[in-house]
């Protein structure tokens, strides 16, 4: 029976991946129906807090992206990478780690991957080295982000054991960052150097590989404002969680819980970005952030 249940789970994951976009969620609901109503498994409680946090964070990110904030973050990432290009294998994971840490989702790091590959080729560094650890770092950071669903769930499990949300972040952030550094050291020795790769050198001589150089981008005022609002919202979340923690207890009788505060603050951030940056809310639903 266990193998049948496991096969059903894999089937609906595969079905959702084939549907694409939000189809993974649709397929997940169908899988729950099959497992509970037809196979008699008992369903667990619906993680309403987690779902609401994910929706609120996505709303804020979507508003920021529409205001040009994501392009601005990619621009800042490119500047950081080009400031020390010879150490791209170590800089790349730190950039993607930071982006995920702030956004709560690894999807924000995807837009930096072409930049990482480009800077690597310019420096004669095998792109697979920084790219491999950069992707890993973007996912590891999810377990340390103050607004990620993973941290919220884990904090809920640990708080009854005496480990607070702030303590969890104080442990997770430095440990995961250090793990990325160790991973970058290992990735720095992967594969042949490009100057010794005959296939790459032949393609370079034939003109099949082109180096584009630094992109021409001028950030708008709205893009800077949207990023500032989003980062301020994250700071507010961490500050409020610190104030209501039992160890700090600056706010002894909070009127709103930490999880509800995360949802409210991120929705407030989305509202402020939309109003100040004049974001067209009708266009947000069709943006790639939701796909």
Automatic annotation (TrEMBL):
This protein's source sits in the domain of life called Bacteria
Alphabetical list of InterPro entries matching this protein: Anaer_Dcu_memb_transpt
What Pfam family does this protein match (any one)?
DcuA_DcuB
Cellular component GO terms, alphabetical: plasma membrane
For this protein, the parts annotated as crossing the membrane are 6-39, 46-68, 88-110, 131-157, 163-190, 227-249, 261-281
Q: How does it sit in the membrane?
A: Multi-pass membrane protein
| Entry GO MF terms | C4-dicarboxylate transmembrane transporter activity
Kindly state which keywords UniProt assigns to this record, in alphabetical order.
Cell inner membrane, Cell membrane, Membrane, Transmembrane, Transmembrane helix, Transport
Q: Which cellular compartments is it found in? A: Cell inner membrane
Q: Which family does it belong to?
A: Belongs to the DcuA/DcuB transporter (TC 2.A.13.1) family.
Q: Which PANTHER family match?
A: ANAEROBIC C4-DICARBOXYLATE TRANSPORTER DCUB, C4-DICARBOXYLATE TRANSPORTER DCUA
* Stated name of the protein: C4-dicarboxylate transporter DcuA
The organism of origin for this protein? Uabimicrobium amorphum
């Amino acid at each position: 029976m266990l193998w049948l249940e496991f096969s059903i789970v894999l089937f609906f994951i595969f079905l959702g991946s084939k549907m694409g976009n939000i189809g993974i969620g649709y397929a997940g609901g169908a899988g729950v129906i099959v497992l509970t109503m037809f196979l008699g498994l008992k369903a667990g409680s619906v993680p309403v807090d987690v779902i609401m946090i994910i929706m609120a964070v996505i709303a804020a990110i979507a508003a920021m992206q529409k205001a040009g904030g994501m392009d601005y973050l990619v621009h800042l990432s490119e500047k950081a990478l080009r400031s020390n290009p010879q150490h791209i294998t170590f800089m790349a994971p730190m950039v993607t780690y930071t982006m995920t840490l702030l956004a709560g989702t690894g999807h924000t790091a995807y837009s930096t991957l072409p930049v990482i590959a480009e800077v690597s080729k310019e420096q004669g560094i095998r792109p697979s080295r920084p790219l491999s650890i950069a992707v890993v770092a973007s996912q590891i950071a999810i377990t340390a982000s103050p607004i990620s669903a993973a941290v919220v769930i884990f904090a809920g499990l640990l708080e009854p054991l005496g480990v607070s949300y702030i303590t969890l972040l104080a442990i997770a952030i430095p440990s995961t960052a250090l793990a990325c550094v160790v991973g970058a050291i290992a990735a720095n020795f992967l594969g042949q150097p490009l100057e010794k790769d005959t296939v790459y050198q032949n393609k370079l001589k034939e003109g099949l590989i082109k180096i584009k150089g630094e992109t021409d981008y001028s950030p708008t005022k709205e893009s800077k404002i949207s990023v500032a609002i989003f980062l301020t919202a994250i700071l507010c979340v961490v500050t409020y969680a610190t104030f209501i923690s039992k160890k700090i207890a600056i706010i002894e009788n909070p009127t709103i819980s930490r999880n509800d505060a995360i949802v409210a603050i991120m929705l407030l951030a989305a509202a402020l970005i939309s109003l100040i940056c004049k974001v067209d809310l009708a266009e947000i639903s069709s943006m790639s952030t939701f796909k």
